[in-house]
Design a protein that fits this description.
The chain is of the alpha/beta class. 38% of the residues lie in helices and 23% in strands. The relative contact order is 0.15. It binds nicotinamide-adenine-dinucleotide (NAD).
């Protein structure tokens, strides 16, 4: 049985707690959150203990693995603490918003051999993964274009925007990672980014964005387009199109049922797509945890590494550089 400490019992932390306890090979031992109300609630719901400090949870001899789902600025400190204590680590994306902190963390944990997986859950979505496999197996011939549409149902509140650190590093980072995943060993080398706050007053107030488009190019010449919005009135719009010399694969939106309505006013009308990420990627969140458990058990390299987290942040940084300079930016992963 792998015993876990959970850092952060907010929106995604609550979900991870339930996933840990529903896996037959793991259990939740400790929960730590600076909001003690949250940690007490999650500990009670999952038959675990509230830790009084991060150290108590992470360095406990009863703990084998640490799942970091706390606010982003805490991630590198907890990764370092857990690595030095020899624990397996699952850390939510992004590793941090500041590449300097990410590089420092990389130095501090260098040579420590513990499994460390980053929470890019979309790689584990069965449909997106099929699209990736189609690229690997050349089912659509030579890959020429990759198009990702990723739109949230509604904008977050102003407090979230103040803390999240900006659209590209917090949200688009998933699409940068998914692009890297589908491209495999063909690195993204250039990016042009456009963005604006078109409708969300909170985004305007915080100098953030609510709408964005990106064009990227890979080393082999594949063109990649990503478009994002923080408001799609019809739900969480998640589509991936992989286009090549022999055809196209689409990983389309998913709806909770397969009902189609035909009446006087509409034909072939369907219920709305999933509302947001917890519902849409339910299977992916479980499978990413299963993969993490497998890498602990089999002592294999996790499927999404620290380097993947760092590379996605480097693309996000280049995207901001492009937005600000109004130029296409060459991406340097060093
Ligand atoms: N992979 C995904 O799909 C996905 C989705 C949502 C969030 N996330 C990531 O997960 C992380 C948490 O996001 P969220 O939406 O759950 O946010 P949230 O604000 O709901 O939860 C964050 C929690 O961290 C706690 N916290 C803050 N400082 C802490 C500290 N020093 N020690 C312990 N706990 C602390 C807060 O009290 C809060 O309960 C973020 O890094 C976010 O980017 C990933």
């Amino acid at each position: 049985m792998i015993k876990f400490a959970l850092m952060g019992a907010g929106r995604i932390g609550k979900m991870h707690a339930a996933i840990i306890n529903s896996h037959p090979g793991s259990s939740l031992k400790y929960v730590f959150d600076t909001n003690t109300g949250f940690s007490e609630q999650v500990a009670k719901a999952n038959n675990s203990k509230v830790a009084k400090s991060p150290e108590e949870a992470i360095t406990s001899s009863e703990v084998d693995a640490v799942l970091i789902a706390s606010a982003t600025p805490t991630h590198t400190r907890f990764i370092t603490m857990a690595a030095k204590a020899g624990k397996a680590i699952f850390c939510e994306k992004p590793i941090d918003l500041d590449i300097g902190k990410v590089n420092q963390c990389m130095e501090e944990i260098k040579g420590i051999n513990v499994p460390l997986q980053i929470g890019f859950n979309r790689r584990f979505d069965k449909s997106h993964a099929k699209a990736q496999q189609a690229r690997v197996n050349k089912e659509i011939g030579e890959l020429e274009m990759l198009i990702i549409t990723s739109r949230d149902p509604e904008p977050p509140g102003i407090e979230y925007l103040k803390a999240a650190g900006g659209f590209f590093r917090d949200t688009t980072i998933h699409d940068f990672d998914l692009s890297r995943f589908i491209l495999g060993d063909d690195p993204i080398i250039q990016i042009s980014a456009f963005g604006d706050a078109l409708f969300d007053e909170n985004a305007k107030k915080t100098k953030d964005l609510d709408t964005a488009m990106f064009i990227m190019r890979s080393k082999s010449g594949v063109l990649i387009h990503v478009n994002n919005s923080r408001r799609a009135v019809y739900g969480y719009d998640q589509r991936v199109e992989v286009f090549g010399s022999k055809g196209m694969i689409i990983s389309d939106n998913q709806i909770p049922n397969s009902i189609k309505i035909f009446d006087k006013y509409k034909t072939n009308a369907q219920d709305p797509i999933h509302f947001f990420f917890i519902e849409r990627y339910e299977q992916a969140y479980k499978d990413q945890f299963n993969a993490f458990m497998e890498s602990i058990k089999n002592k294999t390299k996790p499927k999404v590494t620290f380097e993947d987290g760092r590379n996605a942040l480097i693309i996000a940084n280049a995207a901001y550089q492009s937005l600000e300079s109004r130029k296409t930016i060459d991406i340097n992963f060093n």
